[in-house]
Amino acid sequence: LWTVAADGFIVQFVNTVSAGGRKIGMVSMANNRAPGRTAVLAVHSAAFALACLVDAAPLDAEDDPGAALYQRHCAACHEGGVAEAPSRAALERLSIDAVYAALTDGIMQSQAAALSDTERQQLASALGQRRHGAANTVVNACDTTVAGESKASLSWQGWGADAGNTRSVDGRFSSINVSNVDALELSWVFAIPDGSRPRSQPGIDSHRVYLGSQSGIVYALDRYSGCEYWRFEAAAEVRTAISVVAPREGEGSSLVFADMDAQVYALDADSGEIRWRVSAGDHPAATITGSPKVHDGRVFVPLSSSEVLSAVDPAYPCCSFRGGVVALDLSSGRELWRTHTVAQPQNVGKSRNGATARWAPSGAPVWNSPTIDVDRELLYVGTGENYSRPASDTSDAIIALSLDDGEIAWVHQARAEDAWNVACLVEDRRDNCPDPPGPDFDFGAQPILLHTPGGEDVLVAGQKSGDVYALDPARDGRLLWHKKLGHGGFNGGVHWGLTGGVGVVYVPISDSPHNEHSDKAPLRPGLTALNLEDGSQRWQHRLSITACDEHDYRCYPSLSAAPTRVNDLVFAGGLDGFLQAFSADTGELLWRFDTVRPYDAVNLSEAVGGSIDSDGPVIDGDQLFINSGYDKFGEIPGNVLLVFRLAQEPELKEDGP
Ligand code: HEC
Fold it and tell me: CA-to-CA distance for 460 and 619, rounded, in angstroms?
């Protein structure tokens, strides 16, 4: 109808709000010439847009001490130097409070350690978009008398749905299948305030859906309407799934999750009141991003860390974090056992510049949710790379631990000598980069325990290298077969998850063009079904990377997030923002939904979808829950929980025509 030229600005964010009965567009823009400065434009018509430049920040970056501090201390990583660091546009979607918190007691505290409090505040005001986080206001409270006591879902618990972490749901628990997938419709949308990367996989029970967030708030929403029952403030970002645990004698259901400060929480699901909270980390850089696994009255917590980032500081003695698993008692939080993936680090020499002490072994973090083998009384986890040399024989490995006391039963190392940290990516800061640097081929995805039609157990694991391994749990993890399905790279290969069914495993491949390439092998994003017995291929659905002039990732159909099987369908979300359903029998693409767009959310007005990465669809009954938006590696930021539901059959009228 009309166009408004906003010369010198780049549009970052488009949205609509209702005002005086009219829809008004809100456009957030970044100034090209003065990076870091944004403006918000309210648009109803061309004339109205020109009259309504709201909240424009000063354009002169040179006078801004925060902008100068950013250039000096932050730009090296956040302007593309370290792919994993959120882009500047993504940082600018956070509130001032959120940036300040990241620098003070959050993930960036070691990067900001040398800065004064005033300097941190200046940085926060230069980057943060809003004076106060929108997270503080409840705008869609439920009528609390409506929901009764919730019953934990039998179909889906934690990250992997069942003990074997198979991320699969059958007809007893969900009606969604090939014959009705076309009737799947968007039912409601929740906008996560103050975030650009929702990655806490929702938990569900009979009445509610629970979701963690970047600001640390855990929300309890009505699963059919999205209204808010209660919220709980954790000390730091919650990246884990929220596990809803079936009631025990005399207790209502509990929610179990963990935060980036390595604290584990148990809450009362009905009230949101805290039952216990325990600090599970034993290192200053410890984090918990893999989801705690609840089984038989115990909570098994995987330990990962941000020490890979600390290593960028040439003065940091690299490295001393050890990956591991901690077992806690579900009713009290009391620690039962703790097992590390590497031995106690020793001083083994100097960094490359000879100025700092080097410690090893280190790393082998656990990024995935433990998988339970009930029959053998074992749990399985995959590990990541070592952070320093000498490397250990437990990095990039699948490890079996006794459920009872955490003793290591066996280790299957897929790749030896992989020692790497973020210093390897930052020019002039490579002092702590292991020599030679390894490829960073973690097991990010949870191992899954599947069964052949004949009833044999097979443990399947997928690696960031693009390799898939089938191990024999009856013979100490001996290799049954191995396939390489993707090119692989630091961003996967197989990145966050696998799913399967009887006799079959479904393997998603990311192979984003942004991965570092050691050779010229073709990228192969897509989904492959393999026979469990011998790894032979049932079908493969390759997705094609197209050239387009939109944001790069709009063109990358990479399946990095964890997929989910329901009945005869496999759902998988892409970095391009599409959620897709494939036939589990043939691989045919049957349904897709483009999540990259603004939404009318049940709460906030700023609701937009983006890349789907990390966590995947949770499916129960006639509903599917999925997060959209991811701000790392330059992907498409967003802040929504999308809830899909099968369209309801029109009700039959009883009193006839
Ligand atoms: C060594 C590289 C590096 C440097 C230097 C660095 N960052 Fe980061 N930053 C990262 C990475 C990587 C992440 C993502 C970490 C994660 O989410 O696991 C990140 C995340 C963040 C976040 C997001 C926190 C959230 O809630 O998602 C903020 C804010 C941030 N950085 C601000 C800064 C500021 C301000 C500076 C300068 C003082 C800075 N960073 C310096 C690498 C860096």
Answer: 22
CB-based burial label for 426 (10 Å; 0-12, 13-18, 19+): middle
Gap from CA of 110 to ligand 1 centroid (Å): 10
Q: Please, what are the averages of pLDDT over each run of 10 residues along the chain (657 residues)?
A: 62 62 66 55 61 48 79 86 83 83 87 91 82 65 72 86 97 96 98 91 94 95 95 95 82 91 95 96 96 97 96 94 97 97 97 93 98 98 98 98 98 98 90 95 98 97 97 98 93 95 97 71 92 98 77 88 98 97 98 96 90 97 97 91 89 54
The answer to whether 414 and 391 have CB atoms below 8 angstroms apart is no
HSE at residue 204, side-chain half, CA atoms within 13 A, is 21
Residues whose CB is less than 8 angstroms from the CB of residue 145 and which lie 6 or more positions away in sequence, other chains included: none
pTM confidence score: 0.85
- Which residue out of 73, 78, 305, 614 has the highest number of ligand 1 atoms within 8 Å of its CB and is therefore the one to mutate? 78
CA-nearest of 369, 134, 151, 334 to 242 is 369
Q: How far is the CA of 153 from the centre of ligand 1 (A)?
A: 37
Atom of ligand 1 nearest to the CA of 313: 1
